[in-house]
Structure formats: C-alpha cells, structure tokens
Structures
1.
Amino acid sequence: MSRAPLNLPRLAWRYLWARPMLTALNLMLLSLGLAAIGFVVLVSEQMEQGLKRDLGGIDLVVGAKGSPMQILLAGVFHLDQSTGNIPLATVSQLRAQPLVAQAVPISLGDSFQGFRIVGTTADYLALYQLTLAQGQAWKAPMQAVLGAEVAGRSGLKPGDRFHGTHGLASGGDEHEQAYEVTGVLAPTGALSIGSC
C-alpha cells in the first residue's frame, strides 16, 4: 500500500478551517503583536529625532546650583522646574571664553496659562531654526513671540497683550505689566515656547 505524499500547505489550510474561532483569535493576536511592535518602533524613532533636534548645537548647559539633570531637563527640554537663573555677568564671562562659539541665555520662572515664558535673545530662534508665521521678533523688554501651540490655544495674535504669572502652576501671582505679542512662530512639532 502506497501513501500519498504529505502536502503541508494543504494540511495547514484544512487545520485552519477546522477551527475557525481559534484561527480568528490567533490572527487577531498576531495582528495586535505586529501593531504593538510597529508602534514601539515609530515612537522610538520619533523620540530619537526629537532628542537630536532639541540637543542639536548644544554642547554645554550652564545653570544655577542644583541637580545637573534638572538643569538639563528645564533648560533644554522645558520639562522640569528651573533651578534658578545665573547672573548676566556670568553669561558675559562665558561668552568671553575662547572655546565658546556661542552662548544663548535663557531665563525661566514665569508662565502664561501653564506655558513657560522664556526670556532670551534672538540667538535662541537661530539655535532651534525657528521661523515666524506672523508678525516680527521682539525688539524690547516685555515683548513676546508666542509658540504656535500657545497662540492656537490662547487665541492671541500680534498686537494683543497678556499678563504672565510667577511660576508654572496656574493661580500664581500675576505680573502688573503686560507682555505685548509681536509675533507667532511657525509650527515645528517640537517645543511649546513663549519667548520674550
């Protein structure tokens, strides 16, 4: 008696159709597993690109006495409370060093509707390659360029005024003097900042 050769694809096909609920469950689990792996890969790539973009051109972060990690998180990624500001004289000393190509000062501590107000110079816009979608850059104290997200959520546009508050939490003491909005940054998909 001779036996027919074993046909694996046909056998697998018959097995799948003999147990349709189990087959459907296995296909669903396989799909979920592949989707989860794809999601992790995409998120990992986005985070890596974001870190490269935010750290691009930054070799050293100088801040007030405190945790180095907190200084980095607050000064570069805007994710933590600032340890405080250093004196402007220290920034001048850093700029005078022959090994320092560029020093971009930022001053943190106040906010508007939960968004940080970043006191800085026009070098900050150049460092992150930010462009204006509306208006112009600030030229004097108490003038502000809003990030695209800040402008979208608040409804502010060039020519409008707003009052900053002390600290990041809502309900802080409001400043008496108002900021004048001079411009709005083009969306970048990166940091949400308000600069003044």
Note: The two ends are 92 Å apart (CA to CA).
2.
Amino acid sequence: MTMTISTINDPTIPLASEDAIPSGNSENAHLASKEVCLFLADYASTLLGSGATCIRIEKNINRMAEVFGKRVELTIMPRHVHLTVWNPKSDDRYTSTASVAPAPISFSLNTRLSELSWTVADSHLSLDEARERFLRIATSDKENPWQTLLLASLANAAFCGIFGGDLSAIVIVFVATALGFNLKQVLLKRHFDSRFVFFICAFVSSVVGAADFLFPAGNTPAVAIGTSVLYLVPGIPFLNSFNDLLYRHYICSVCRFIDAIVLTGCLSLGLCLGMRLMNVDMF
C-alpha cells in the first residue's frame, strides 16, 4: 500500500483529525521514525520466530507505536517482517526489513515479549527503556534443557496412559521420548535441518517403542509404539496456521500449514522406517 503525506503550511487547515493522530507522550515526541522502526522490526521478527501468530504481532506493534506517537504499516511474511513507521504530523518516515532467525518455539519468550508491549503502553516507557528490556528478555530466555527433557518425557508417557497403555508401555514410552527428545535438542542446537531432525528422532523413538513387541512384558505394545512419537507432532504450526487464516494472513497461513504437513510427513516416514526395521506390522 502506498501512502502520501503532505506538509501543509496553512495553520488554519489541520493535517488530520485529532482522533486519527496517535497521541504518544511528551518524552517520545522527539523520536525519529528510524529509531522506532528499527526497534519494532527487531521486536516483530523475534516474536514471529518464537511462534507468535500474526494477529498478536500486529496488536503488539501497533500498541507500542501509538505510545511512541507513530503510525505503522506492517507486512508479515514467513521469513521476513517488512515495517514502515512514520510520524503523522510530519514527513518523517522510515522502512526496515528484518529476517526471522530460525529458532525453536518458545512460549516463555512469546509471553514475555507480549507483556513488554503492555508495559510500554501502560507505563509509557521511553524507547530506550523499551529497547533495554527487549534485549534483556531476548538474551535471557534460556530454558533448562534437562527440565524440558524430563517434562516432555513425563507428558508423553502420560499420553500413553491416557490412550490405554499399561505400566510397561508407559515406561517404554518415557524412555523412547527421553532419547528422541534429547537427540532433537542436540541436533537443533547444531543447526541441523528440522525436517531431518523430525525424521531421525521419530525413527529412534519408534525403534525404542517397539521393544514392547520384542519383549512382551505388557498387553499394549501397539499403544507404546503409537505414542512414542507424539512429542514430535507439530501442533503449534497447525494452530497458528488456522489462526492466521481467520485473520486473513493467507500467505503465512499457507506456509505454516505446508511446513506442518512436511514435518508430519517426516515424522511418519521415520516411524514407518523404525517399525519396518523392528519387523513390526500394525496394518
């Protein structure tokens, strides 16, 4: 969308209606659009990389831009964020494009960055304060990998019990998840392609999950192998795709949906190969 802002020297003719101009505050009145744009672009790309929906990014960006006395035109793409910031009372305008760095989905980072936008709006933080808090949040969001590993393993084992698995199956699923999830953490940290990671982790977990077939200590081996890979199901990309579809972010919606389908296919391929290797026939 192309917008033209004209500077009118006649004081009797208003530049725009009072309701249409963001109020901001006196401390932020002097801010250049470039400063605000660079901050908001970094914020938006980080939020998108943490797994936020497009509508959340839009609301957070506009909420902070209003405090800084600016207007924003935001375009969200699957790998980039294009942002134009301008002052409605002058011809000061700046455009920036920020790339989204590949990173695992982080609910903690997502929540804390959203809280920052509300803090900026409610407390009318200055740009320097907002930038300082943003950098602190972005660099301190480090989850304990061992705690995450334990909780993920317990959660997947609980799913096995919910689906009717006996004690033997629950224990096997816990071990299969722990091994597969730890491998996922290591490979992603070393920047392996996520599709390969999903394939190899599903393969490893399904091989371990098939132990209940080879050494039948319980009565639910099929439940064990079926739930051993549930931790890999890309539920968040599927949900975000549907959310973006509702709010007409069609490009991001389709791309997220395709990514989720591809990851599901890699998961399925790894599961089938593991079952084939262990000579498990479920069909």
Note: Strands lie at 71-76, 80-86, 93-99.
3.
Amino acid sequence: MISPAVSGGLDIRARYMALAQRKRMYSGLTLIVFLALMASGFVIANDRNAGGFWEGLPNIFAFPAQVVSEAGEKAALLPGHLVAFLPALLETINIAAVSTLLGGVLGLVLSLLSTRGLARFPRLIPLFRRIMDVMRAIPEIVIALVLIFVMGGGPVPAMIAIAFHTAGALGKLFSEVNENADLKPVEGLQSVGASWAQRMMLGIIPQVAPNYISYALLRFEINIRASAILGFVGAGGIGYELKNAMSWGQGKFDEAAAIFILLFGAIVFFDQISSHYRNRLTGGAHDV
C-alpha cells in the first residue's frame, strides 16, 4: 500500500512533468510560428523587390568592398578627410548631448509625476504614463521629418526629435528607479512642511541620482547613433555628410570610409567612457 506522502509526491511529479511537457509544446509552437513569419517575410521582401531579393543577396558585400578598395587606393587622403569631417562629428555629438540633457530633465519630471507614492497629482499618473508611452512609440526619424518640413533642415529638428523620444524612454526608466527609493526621508521632510518639489529634490533625487546618470549615459550612446542616422534625412551632422558621400557614388568612397572611421571611433570612445562611469556609479565606486 502506498503511503499518502509517497502518493502526494507522485502527484506533484506528475503535475510537474505535465507542466514541463506543456511548456515544451508551447515553445515548439512559438518556434514554428517564428519560422513561418520569417519565411513569409522573405517572400514578401522578394516580391516587393520585383523578384530580385534572392538574386541580389549574394551582392550584399559588394558596396563595402568598393568602399574599402577605393579607400585603400586613396589612403594618403584619409588623414585630410578625417580632419575635414571632424566638425560634422562634433555637431553630431553636440546634438546627442543637448538632446540627452533636455530629454533627461523632462524625463525626470515625468517620472516623478508618474510614480506611485511620489506623484504630485496621483489621479493623473495614468495620463503621464500614457504620455511617456506616446513619446517612446513615435520614432525619432518620423518626428525629425515633420520638423524638417516645418522648420527646414539643420541640427535643431534632430535635437528636438531625439529629446522628445529620450524623455519618454528615460522617464520610464527613471520611474522604475523611483519605485525602489526609500520614502522615509520624504516622510520626514513632509512632517516639517517641505513642499513637493523640496521633498523630491532633497529626499528622492539624492538616492537615485547615480542610477539616473547611469541611464542618461547609456542613452547618450544611443543618441549619438540616432543623430548620425537623422543626418540622412537632412538633420545635419556627420550623417548628412555620409549621405552626400554615398549618394555621389564611386569617386567619393574614400570620404565615406573616413566618415565611417570617425563615427565608429566616436561611438567606441563614448561607449568605453560611459561604461566606465556607469560601472562606478552603480556599484564600483566603493572599490576605487
């Protein structure tokens, strides 16, 4: 006769095996759906490309090969090109820096207004959260195209577009950080009559400032790439110069190679710098 304890253990094992089998079945179905979507996507791409997608796929490295070949032939001109396009790179970095600063400040305010237990207007928390959702959902390039149509080309539309998207992204991240903050300093400040702004500035922000700066540095890296991409639609910076060099075609590929080198070097440089400081801010500072 099987004891109740053994019987209960067998039941638990049987339920566990049933759940594991069901999970494997769902994983298999998900994989099948994924593969079906990938296959249909390739078919659609081939049809929209007038049936030349598969035929053109082997030539995917043809353009990079031409750029590298021409850059090698004109290697002596590369240092001059690097110096010539340096101001455009600095403009791209300035766009990213200003948009990160503006977006970070707006995101900070939105995060405090949308965090439960901290919000100045608790009933409006869903509204502020939806505002951040909208700001994150609209791609920077869409905003930039609209602003370029209204304001004309230049760095200002790119700055506004990236700052708008950055505010939504950082606001979401900042609000998650705020939820882990200790509320005792806020309660103490409230007991002595501090205003809401004073409670946030003195009770919350000092606690979460390292995480704020860490996320802002990470976003700055992303914004450098975003500002370069927006240059392709006329928003200035090194992306605009790269578009011109690539549009000209053969004969200007050495300039395109120089721009690629500058952009790659800048992204790697700021990635390393921000990674170093993010590690120190989020836990490594006490080891130094």
Note: The chain has a mean pLDDT of 84.
4.
Amino acid sequence: MNYQLICSDIDGTLLNKNRELSEATIKEVQRLSHIPFVLISSRMPKAMRHLQDILGNTTTPIIAYNGGLILNNDTVIESTTINNTVLESIIEKCINTSIHLSLYHADEWYVPSLDYWAEREINNTKVHPKVKSNSDVLETWKTEGKGAHKIMCMGDEHEIDFLYKTLEKEHDNDIILYRSKATYIEISHRAISKKTAIETLINHSYPHIALNDVIAFGDNYNDIEMLKSVGLGIAVANANEEVLKIAKKVTETNKNDGVALALKNLF
C-alpha cells in the first residue's frame, strides 16, 4: 500500500515518558518529510505548534480539539464549537464541587485559578492559561459570538464520575465525552471526531488522497473511530484494551518510540 498521509495522536502516543519528542521520532518524521505528518489531538493549537517546530513540519495542517478546529497554517479549514447554553449548564453543575473547568477557544485557554489541575496541564502542554472565572468567560464569549472548542473537567474521581453520567444523560445529543483519565473528562461537540476531521482535511487539502491511503497512530478512546476508518490504524502497546482490540497493527509503547519504530519498519 502506498500510504500518502500520516496522522498521529500526541499524548500517550507520540511523546515519550518525559512528554517530549524523542530523537528517534524526530529523525523518522524528518526522513519521511515527503509524506505529510499531521498532528491530531485534543490539545489546543498553541500546544501543538512547538512540536511542529521541533519536527520541522510547520507548513503541515494540524487537527486540534479532537477535530473541533482544523488549521492549515493560520487558515481555519473548519471550526466547530459547543453551544453556550450547554456550557452554561456544565458550569452550573460544577458549582459547589471541587471540579476544575478549563475552557478553550482556538488559542485561548481560561482557568478559574492556577490550581493543581491548571499547573498540571501547564506542565503537560507547555502553554500558560489566562485566569478568568468560568461565568465571566461565558459572558464574554456570548458577546463575542464565540463558543468552546473544548471543555476540560478535572477533579475528584467520584465527582467526575457523577458529572460524566449526568452530562451523558442530559446532553447526549449535543456533546461527546471522553474519559481520558479517571479524573478527567474532555468534552467536544457531538458532530466531530478525529475520523470526520481527517475526512474534512483530505477533502480540503489532499483531494487526491483516500481515507485508505492514511496511516494513523493512537492510544485512547477518542482514537478508536480514526484507527478503524483509515487504511492502517496502529495502536501503541500502552493503549487502552479497547484500542488494542480494534487496531490493525500494534507497535511498541510511546515510551519505547513506538511511532518511530513503526514508521521505520513500514517505510
């Protein structure tokens, strides 16, 4: 098979134990520079661009927010945000809990305080948020005609579990929930996924490529649909059981340069 596009998840897949790009990974991506290497993640664009800089593929499109925002350089190919009425409902449900809500729109990231959860995400993504209450962000976005590309809920596992079940029951037609960790819920618009984002990107930027010409790497629940739909869906060995079951191929763990090893063996 003549694969013509490579898409890779970032956290738990592409980055090593230090949440960095290893020399082996950089070398393989640069060796295959004739094939577009697209970062596809729940991260915000700002948390992806520094990785593009290191890889040397800054002109390649990126897919942020699990497909909620697709960019070709600074040109927006597609943007899908969560309705503010849903955001308002989520904010209300988190009042009187210990749950931290991070709100994202394009390269804007707002946190209610620089607490444990905010500091953890700063460490993970190398991006710094602005401190602003969730209700103030909501009012500003209503005025500016904006919505959230992603909502991140972080906190006590039991509170997160209760919130997940409540949101799933009340807003199932509006949003999709990803339990990336026991203490995390990542929330996106129901209409988007990594699979639909790749399809949109192909139609816009690579019309000569079919979905079957794509290789994709992933490790988590939000990667399943993508890995099932592309020509070759590869899971890293540390992936969730559900991901390992549907993957067409399994490579080494992210800590052992699984993406680099697979690319080296395939090309």
Note: The first strand starts at residue 5 and ends at 8.
